[in-house]
Amino acid sequence: MSSEVLVSRPHFDSRSVAQAGDPLPPTDAEATFMEGLHPSSGLATAGYRSAKYSAEEWHVNNFSTLHQAVIDRNNAERIRHESKTLYAETEAGTLRTQAEGTRHLGERLQDIHFWKSELQQHIEKLLAETDLLLRQKRRLLKALDATEIPFAIATDNLTCRERRLGPDLVKDRVEEELLKEVELIRSIQALLKRTLSQAVNQIKPSHWLSAPYCLPLCVCIRCNRDAKQTLELDWSDKYQAYSLDDQCGRYNNMSTDTQYHPNSANLQDQLCNRDAWVCSTQDNLSVAQREEQASVELRLLVERVLQETAEDLRVQCSNVDQAFSQRCLQLTEAKTQLELHLTQILDQIGAQERNMVSLQKALYDKEAPLRVAQSRLHQRSHRPHMELCRDNPQFSLVGEVGQISQTMSSLQQQLSAARSSLSHLEESRMALEKDIGCKTHSLLIDREKCMSHRTRYPTIIALSGY
Questions:
Q1: Are residues 325 and 209 in the same domain?
Q2: In-domain check, residue 380
Q3: Is residue 98 part of a domain?
Q4: Which end of the chain is less enclosed by CB atoms within 10 A, N or C?
């Protein structure tokens, strides 16, 4: 058996080494032990020292226990102090953040209330403008109905004058004025119908070449209602948002109807920003303001159209009446001057023949420009895809063709009238006595039939839609 005695090593708490930043210096006994204890020798004491600690080992163990207790107490006090500080800071930060959120909700409510009031104001304006447009619509309907009487009178006059006999059946100034009146009434009826349709369906024509009036691009009843519906939808959304934000503003830490919604903050990337929200409402208000302004312009335009059309009809009626009076005077004088015209007939025949030659030459001269314009239009019709557009050259060429065609039609009518006049001149040499009877018959139609019928012409007030 070995002569060395087995001695147990002292116990050290590893936490004191790990947690203590600067451990306390060891005592003399501890230093002596740390340097290393020499094992005891001797057979007499071998059985008593093998399982016991030395006094120095007891002191070291006691010191380690006390030192670890001090370290644990200091750590506990430090954590408690940090916890109190963190609690106070987090409590103040949470209250501050919540107060700031409540303030932002209040500002948001003010913004929503402001824009909601603006929307409500423009909705009421659109309602008022729509009512005014409906009144103008009723006036348009009355004015359109009132044009039926002048149209019936004018067409009846033309029908009666078709019963004139012999050389009196000519296209005189009375007939021209009557044709102008009929064309004017048709144009006015078409204009009133288009205006009525525009006031209901928002028609936006670019050019109305056949009408004496041209309506600009403007708003109508349907536009007002569409804009009003858009504003009402926006107002409804803001009303609902105001209710939700008002409810959110009333939430506090004592509210019982709050719940956890862990994913509520993940939807923020899908929302629009405040500038887009304001821009959307401003766009809706801008559209409504444009519709309001266009509605006012349309009402003024309708008023002007009704007034001008009524005045134009009355002016044309006066022109027709004046033409009838002049025609009747001419017929009366013609009855007494037929003999004096006999010597002038031959000269008129020659002049009329030269006039016909001039008209035919004028017609022939118009053929080449017409072919050029129509060829241009035909070639431009082969433009590909979006190039086939109604540009300024297209409008110019269409207008040119229409103008040349109208000119040729006028020349053709004038040529026909010249031929008829020539025929009448040739026949008048043999039928002067018969022509006196024709003049009497014509006076009966113009004076007794037509002029008496025109006394039923409606007044300017009725033609204005009142």
A1: yes
A2: no
A3: yes
A4: N
Q: Domain boundary residue among 104, 126, 143?
A: 104
Tell whether 56 and 111 lie within a shared domain: no
Mean pLDDT throughout 189-196?
88
Q: How far apart are CA 63 and CA 23, in angstroms?
A: 11
Angle (CA) 422 428 430, round 5°? 130
Angle between helices 274-380 and 221-250 in degrees, nearest 10: 160
| pLDDT score of 179 | 93
CA distances from 448 to 193, 439, 445 (A): 35, 13, 6
H or E element, residue 224: helix 221-250
The answer, yes or no, to whether residue 2 has pLDDT greater than 60, is no
CB 357 within 8 A of CB 423: no
Contact call for residues 334 and 418 (beta carbons, < 8 A): no
The number of distinct structural domains making up the chain is 2
- Look at residues 58, 86, 104 and tell me which one is the last residue of a structural domain: 104
pTM check: above 0.85: no
Nearest to 302 by CA among 146, 416, 82, 464: 464
Q: Is residue 359 part of a domain?
A: yes
Torsion sign across C-alpha atoms 260, 261, 265, 266: positive
SS3 sequence of 323-369: HHHHHHHHHHHHHHHHHHHHHHHHHHHHHHHHHHHHHHHHHHHHHHH
Read off the pLDDT of residues 128-179 as tens digits, 9 standing for 90 and up: 888 888 888 888 888 899 899 999 999 999 999 999 887 788 888 999 999 9
Please compute Rg for the chain using Cα positions.
Answer: 54
Domain residues for the domain of 45 are: 14-104
Chain-wide mean pLDDT for the chain? 79
In this structure, the answer to whether residues 159 and 241 fall within a common structural domain is yes
Residues 98 and 128 in one domain: no
Alpha helices in 168-220 (DSSP H): 173-201
Question: Any idea what the Cα angle at residue 10 is, between residues 9 and 16, rounded to 5°?
Answer: 135
